[in-house]
Design brief:
Blueprint: E1 9-12, H1 25-37, E2 42-45, H2 57-71, E3 76-80, H3 86-98, E4 103-107, H4 116-129, E5 134-138, H5 140-143, H6 149-158, E6 162-167, H7 172-181, E7 187-190, H8 196-200, E8 206-209, H9 212-227, H10 231-247, H11 255-263, H12 280-295
Parallel strand pairs: 1-2, 1-8, 2-3, 3-4, 4-5, 5-6, 6-7, 7-8
Helix pairs in contact: 1-2, 3-4, 4-6, 6-7, 9-10, 10-12, 11-12
């Protein structure tokens, strides 16, 4: 039994904006409900896919309240509260807890590149500051430093509320090692849609996903097929979706997934600078692939 049940498909939700660049809270509520009705078990808000670098703290808190009201008890709401300042990360974590977040996601400190001992101290301080579940986030391509499996083991064993990790790092040996040495009730989530199926074979719980905005039901069925022993069916779905997993990162996330959502009429594809929307050629490529997957 997991320490915290967030399900198998957690969508890292985009933040809808108006044409003027304001957060569109009405659309955020609609999107949250749509996602829960279409394969998502829980939602992660104000993360990188939600354009956290350009959100204010007040906007993040209002998003949390909006999404909580929208989905009620139909799924968990996890808030990204990470920072490369431990004091700031604690402040944001406490605010999320106060405002009713079911859990927080906290990234390895970025840019200042702490040692493994520094990473341990950082997450230890956060875990001691809040009572709600903490999900670690390991993404060396953005942070510049990798959190090693031994560090994850230390934190998972020492703190009952450190419940899971989002692992966005294509080294499956590290996933094997993590699964081997971490507590059995500590959950591992793929942070990359394309690695979900391989990581499931190594004991991962599921995925914190971008593609689930559009293909939530398909991802859910892939995971359930794999876990029920229908490996060929799971592989078939993976291969159908694999080109889209890659295409959604043809440029900076979440620009492509917002374009995809705009195509099906869920939200507009507005983003905040320094991000810009897809150009005509990029949209043509993305939309053609969506049409092809629809045919399949």
């Amino acid at each position: 039994m997991s320490r915290f049940e967030a399900g198998e498909v957690i969508t890292a939700m985009v933040t809808p904006f108006t044409k003027e660049g304001n957060v569109d809270y009405d659309k955020a509520a609609e999107l949250a409900s749509y996602l829960i009705e279409n394969g998502s078990d829980s939602l992660l808000i104000a993360a990188t896919t939600g354009e956290s670098p350009t959100l204010t703290h007040d906007e993040e808190i209002e998003l949390l309240s909006t999404v909580k009201r929208a989905i009620k008890n139909d799924g968990k709401v996890i808030m990204s509260t990470g920072s490369n300042s431990t004091d700031s990360a604690i402040k944001y974590a406490k605010a999320a807890e106060k405002e009713g977040a079911d859990a927080i996601l906290s990234v390895v400190p970025y840019y200042n590149k702490p040692s493994q001992d520094g990473i341990k101290a950082h997450f230890s301080a956060i875990a001691q500051a809040v009572k709600i579940p903490v999900i670690l986030y390991n993404i060396p391509s953005r942070t510049g430093v990798e959190m090693l499996p031994e560090t994850v083991k230390y934190l998972a064993e020492k703190f009952e509320n450190i419940v899971a990790i989002k692992q966005s790092f294509p080294d499956l040996d590290k996933v094997s090692e993590m699964r081997d040495i971490c507590p059995e009730d500590f959950d591992i989530y793929s942070g990359d849609d394309s690695l979900t199926l391989p990581m499931l074979s190594l004991g991962a719980k599921g995925v914190i996903s971008v593609a689930s905005h559009i293909y939530g039901e398909e991802l859910k069925s892939m995971i359930e097929d794999f876990k029920s022993g229908q490996v060929k069916s799971a592989l078939n779905m993976h291969m159908i979706l694999y080109p889209m997993f890659k295409k959604l990162f043809m440029t900076s996330n979440p620009v492509p997934i917002k374009a995809a959502l705009s195509k099906i009429g869920i939200i507009k594809d507005y983003v905040r600078l320094p991000l810009v929307i897809l150009n005509y050629e990029q949209k043509a490529e993305l939309f053609a692939l969506m049409d092809e997957i629809e045919r399949l």
